Amino acid sequence: MSSRLALIAAVVAITVLYSLPAFAPDPYVLHVLVLACLYVIPAVGLNLMLGYTGLVSLGHMGFAGVGAYVGAILLVDVKHGFWVTLLLATLAAGFAGALVGAICLRFRTHFFMIVTLAFGLLAFSVFNNWDEVTRGAVGFPGIPRPRPIELGGVRYTFGPLPHFYYFVLTAAMLVFALQRLVVRSDFGCTLMAIRQDEKLAQAKGVDVMRYKVAVFALGAALAGLGGLLHVSFLRVAAPASFNLAESINAVLIVVLGGAGSLVGPALGALVFVALPEYLRMTAEWRLVIFGALLVVVTLFAPRGLAGLFHSRNIGVRPGSDTNVK
Amino acid sequence: MMKLLAVEGVRKRYGGVIALADVSFAIEQSGIYGLIGPNGAGKTTLFDVIAGNTAADNGRVIIDDREMTGALPYRLVRQGVARSFQECRVLSEFTCLENLLFAAQPKTLGHGIAQIFTRRDAHRRAALESARHLLDLVNLTAYADAPASVLSFGQRRLLEIVTTFIMRPRVLLLDEPAAGVNPALLETLDRALRAMIAERTGVFLIVEHNMTFIFALAHEIIVMHQGVVLERGTPEQIQASPRVVEAYLG
Amino acid sequence: MLEALAEQIINGLMMGSVYVLVALGMVLVYGVMHVVNFAHGVLFMMGGYVAHFFFARVTGSYVLATLLTMALLAVIGIAIERAIFRPLAGNLRNQVIASLGLILAIENLTIAIWGPNALQLKLPSTETLVTIGPLRFPEHQLLIIAITAVMVVALSLFLKRSRFGTAIRATAQAREAALVVGIPVERVYWSTFAIGTALAALGGALIGPLFLIFPTMGDAPLVKGLAGILLGGMGSVPGAVIGGLSIGVLEAVSTLFLPTDYKDSIAFMAMVVILLLRPQGLFGVRVRGED
Considering the domain boundaries, does residue A156 fall inside one? Predict the structure, then answer.
């Protein structure tokens, strides 16, 4: 797809998405789209890690949980304002990512994945068992929406579904803009070099460890952001939203949509959330199909759904790494 | 005189195998140096030690009179060392031009993160000119926007070599650049190397098995054998040396 | 106090035996194919469900049901190796991602077919108690320890003494050399996978009667098995045994001092500690990773 066509497609998509509440105010549709946006934000983080840098993190949603619970505590127990909390929670998740990354990324591929798995499980265990702080398995209730704000004389509340929809849609757009900035920068170039051949990147002067920790922190921060918005939407934080199954779903969304492509996370999240609703499947069968799809995509279509649209993209072929050991 | 590249008493063993027994030499003048020796002499291991890919068990590595023993590869790059690999490594998914631009771009994390937001690309435009010139030097201009994966092995070698050169190294380590390259491209390689050393002085240390190629190119040859430096001299001297002949035939 | 400790050690040896069965399968596959099969946990789980099916529907003999389970799962393991892991050989990331897909598909297929509630496999051996000194244990618990010990010995003998076992060890050490010498490397691959899967299935079939059979029963043993391998050293069979048992005992003994909620975390934390302090494990060899 040429970049002009891509630009037109993007503008059309954005216009449609923003005008949706006016033309098709069905709350069910909006609900599904809100969920899609909430899945997309951590997915972009994982896309940067996995798709562009080649880091397979099996505990990504653990960081979403960090953002969610730190935010919950700050909002409900400490009674901070929403926007300050959003910033702090995102930073906390990013910091956790840097810490975990500094530990995990020293290890070779296999061990790295195992340690990310361990951290994800550890995080879930904490969310699920530390009743005094996280309220444990029953969940952390009472998480508020942002308080109403004044926008040019107009009072904007976050309670109504369309209003919250605009909010998360905008957040998702900003995250995509950030992704594009990162990918099309020297930093992004270096990430893609690391994915293709770490040893070569090193020989060209890259401090590979530092870059990996940096993208890990960034990915974790985005996960944390998504996590907090998610629990604000549901008004409750539940550990089950951040368990191993959810981390696997995150990988599924990124790979299915197209790891290492800009639009991949959006395609993946949409298909993951919207398709089963459309087809009226039970949750289990949906995941069976998706699991099978993940295997099929990995075997036959490593570029995912995005690969159907792009004829050539820098670094969009996670299946064709030359130097993976 | 300043030691542009020096190793002193470098030892390295892998389990029971002694790869480098005691290697010492110093290079104080720019130019093309050949590093030859029978298989198992330790040449690639020496490169790995100098470029930071392996830590030596003993000894020192000196670049521009600075001790760089045990430094990681990226630090050595910042000190002016660049290397190519025996197996030839390029970024297959990037185009030839992108390979060169990546090699040329500043790699510090600070620069990388800042550039996300400043979008400054003056350095990139400057490197573009240099990149096109280098592609022209190795007859790859036609492939500037093609992914490196479509290149033949010999062409990939040439690409790899110019990506090391665009890094403006003071010490350039080339590991068997002629291996697997067909004779027509060898001529291009020879011309390119001569042009490069003429453009920027520095030390080109080239491991080679292709004697014709390296003897024509280098002004000095260092011979390694069984993990030590056996002899050093001009190509004529080395060709005439009985010890060298014995090392290869014995 | 000493009684409680002894009791927990025996408990730990039992759970540890289950972890050993999982770990052995994974360490074999890793040693030979250099792949960590993350789907091993769901194969363990399938062992429980399939054993239940055979026991309840086909034969009233637990022994026969278990053997049939191992055979069926071995075949499934071969299918997975040939259809998924072999085509992706050399691409580590994609192999792991594909195994995630397997986990998703198999775990949810199980829920879709059997429902989310746990199944019970009632056996006399879980009811009968055996007395050791002042302590009493279900017969089944000691059975698990015994059967695992037998399997470990059998596997070691097979690897060391038999021709094919030597072929497996040779392939693990040096694949190209094995090819040159004429070892049927492809057959080694799927056989190893089959053995590993059968062992995992055995684990699931053994633990099912004691603790119920449910869709996510493989998640924890997967992680504990991994912890065991890390502790023992990747690629080391005796390491997997010692590692698996150690994790089991460590977990069980920890319940004496820590709230049981955190029992699972012991394995996770052990993993992190091992990787930080001694990444090669107890018996592994330190390789200066270039990756």
Answer: yes
Q: What are phi and psi of C14, to 5 degrees?
A: -70, -55
Question: On the CB side of C197, how many CA atoms lie within 13 Å of its CA?
Answer: 24
pLDDT tens by residue, C153-184: 999 999 888 888 888 888 888 777 777 788 88
Q: What angle do CA A117, A119, A123 make, to 5 degrees?
A: 120
Q: Does the pLDDT at position A317 exceed 70? A: no
* CATH superfamily placement of domain B5-249: P-loop containing nucleotide triphosphate hydrolases (3.40.50.300)
Q: Full-prediction pTM beyond 0.95? A: no
Give the pairing type, strands C129-132 and B228-233. unpaired
ipTM of the modeled complex: 0.92
Within a domain: A325: no
Which chain A residues contact residue C91 at CB under 8 A?
Answer: 319, 321, 324
Count of other CB atoms within 10 angstroms of residue A311: 7
Nearest to A315 among B89, B93, B115 (CB): B93
Q: In chain B, pLDDT over 90 holds for what percent of residues?
A: 62
pLDDT (tens digit per residue) in A114-135: 889 888 988 998 999 888 888 8
Chain B touched by A185 (CB under 8 Å): yes
Least CB–CB distance from C108: residue in A255, A287, A295: A287
Say yes or no: B90 contacts chain A, CB-CB below 8 A: yes
For A288, which of C108, C227, C262 is closest by C-beta distance?
A: C108
A261 at interface of B, judged by CB pairs closer than 8 A: no
Q: Which residues constitute the domain of residue A205?
A: 3-320
Say what the pLDDT of residue A174 is: 96
Structure tokens at B151: 């290149």
Mind telling me how many Å the CA of A99 is from chain C's nearest CA? 13
